[in-house]
Design brief:
Two copies of one chain form a homodimer.
Chain A (H helix, E strand, L loop, with lengths): L11 H7 L34 E4 L2 E4 L7 H6 L4 E4 L7 H9 L3 E4 L14 H12 L6 E4 L6 H12 L4 H12 L5 H9 L10 H6 L1
Parallel strand pairs in A: 2-5, 3-4, 3-5
Antiparallel strand pairs in A: 1-2
């Protein structure tokens, strides 16, 4: 018996109708991401990128990854990266992406501009659509420090997940800390998620 | 074709040997946890518990959940809760657990004692073993505020995952913020993860 056989496929519609959403079962748990014993020495510790965290199943967030973070990033099995800065992606990072079959989605949101509300709403909307497309996961969202631009996109995703604003801001503040911007929070408050729908897995499996 | 059919079972040993660990595929992604349109109004926003976050696939952390958090917790499809306080679990929380088939693992770590290093190491060790047992996931780790006791257990888990101490502390500090304790960090630094092994899914599926 395979561990992938013990969970019957669930109907997405059923889940939506019942509010009690999917209960990930044994079938959906990847094996442990524990490296083998022989590499478990001081020189082989993993270094996640600055401000790294898991957002949801197959969705991660962080600041800008550098070469020291590449061995760790490999363990995530990424399919895509959502990069939220206008600057070109560094050559060494592009090489890492190419070597690991990771697709880059760049949305050039200016980081220096305050307030963030001046940033075209549709850029964040497009980034959210990429995020909601299951074909792109596992994916990593990052900007420079993983605070403002990344925080806003994650906040819009939480809004789409129907989180209350207090909890969305609480999460934003955990990463932005003393660099938090009221304008970012206002952007999330105003962001309209109605009409944004994910591409359900069924649709692309048929294609 | 089911979305659960497209990923062949992987050999855990292969993954351990290659360091490049499991790449979660479409098969491992649960459907969206988006509530149905008809409940998407102001009265039905989800309220995650204080300091809520996802730690890894099927592992969540938070402060003490109250009744306002129950609708949100239902969406996580929890199988277990690791509760790190010595106080009895409140009746209303027990009712929620019973109604949803969630098993409670209580490890009574005294929260008021400083430094945390006085807490028997074996309590955290047992909690980590529960955490590493895939049969218990999805699971939620919580104490009172989701800062110290929860932070230490998550830190020990990160150590087991071979994260560098700097990144472990960075994550701990994100939740503990101005309540951070050097003694907690020292506890994580000293905690010995050698010899701690997860129960691989293969083993219990045979039983």
């Amino acid at each position: 018996m395979s561990i992938y056989d013990c969970q019957p496929p669930m109907c997405l519609e059923t889940i939506r109708k019942t509010l009690v959403s999917f209960s990930p079962a044994v079938a959906d748990m990847p094996p442990e991401r524990k490296p083998s014993a022989e590499i478990n020495d001081e020189e082989n510790f993993f270094v996640p990128p600055l401000n790294f965290s898991m957002v949801d199943y197959g969705i991660f967030r962080s600041g800008f990854p550098d070469t020291a973070n590449f061995p760790f990033l490999k363990t995530l099995g990424l399919r895509s990266i959502i990069y939220l800065c206008p600057e070109p992606y560094p050559e060494v990072n592009m090489q890492f992406l190419n070597a690991n079959g990771i697709r880059l989605f760049q949305f050039g949101v200016e980081g220096s501009k305050e307030p963030f509300v001046n940033i075209p709403d549709d850029l964040v909307r497009h980034a959210l659509e990429v995020l909601l497309d299951e074909r792109n996961r596992p994916l990593l969202i990052h900007c420079k420090r993983g605070k403002h631009r990344t925080g806003c996109l994650v906040g819009c995703f939480r809004k789409w997940q129907n989180w209350c604003l207090a909890s969305i801001f609480d999460e934003y503040l955990r990463f932005a800390a003393d660099k938090a911007r009221v304008s970012d929070q206002r952007f999330m408050e105003l962001f309209d998620v109605s009409g944004i729908k994910p591409i359900p897995s069924q649709d692309y499996l048929k294609s």
